[in-house]
Amino acid sequence: MRLITIICFVGIILCCLDSLAEETLKISYVDVQRVFDSYYEAKGGAMKTETEKSESEYARRDEEIRKSSKELQEKASSLTQEKKEKRTQEIQGKIEELVKLERAQRQKEQEYLKKALIEIYDVINKIGEKEGLDLIIEKRSVFGKSIVLYGKKSLDLTDKVVERLLGS
Question: What pTM was computed for the model?
Fold first, then answer.
């Protein structure tokens, strides 16, 4: 009796394994960095322009602060203590404005990055659902080596994601 139970159990396991073997996982990968670079190149023009303007404004204000500081040092001996303090406070105020400008620019850049990544991952999810994929992994380089050690080019969704993002 025990032998019959074991044979039945083994038979059931073999049937289950056979049905599991028929079901295959559909896996693809995406090079998110390449997608982001392509997206930023195509859609980031406004952000690049804004960044360039901010950098030139930052450089202009920085130079203004340096000139004011140098001028204060050169004329320090001929100024009253009250005027020195007033100019020092003006310079300090300019420095604080510069720091605020830099923080605001960094925050805008982070918001842009966050929005872009949300859009990218949304497109990846939609493609995965449309194509009936079970798993999408990120192809990423670490120390110049890809984490996806091997993947058929046909499994790479990177170009599809870029095309969908850019509306091509």
Answer: 0.61
Q: Which domains does the chain have, with CATH numbers?
A: 24-166 (3.30.910.20)
Q: pLDDT tens for the chain, 168 residues: list them.
A: 554 554 544 455 545 544 544 567 788 888 888 888 888 777 766 677 777 777 888 888 888 888 888 887 887 788 788 888 888 898 898 889 888 888 888 898 888 888 888 988 899 989 888 988 888 888 876 666 666 656 677 777 888 888 888 885
Query: Cα–Cα–Cα angle for 53, 54, 56, nearest 5°?
Result: 65
Q: Name the token pair of 93.
A: 């105020």
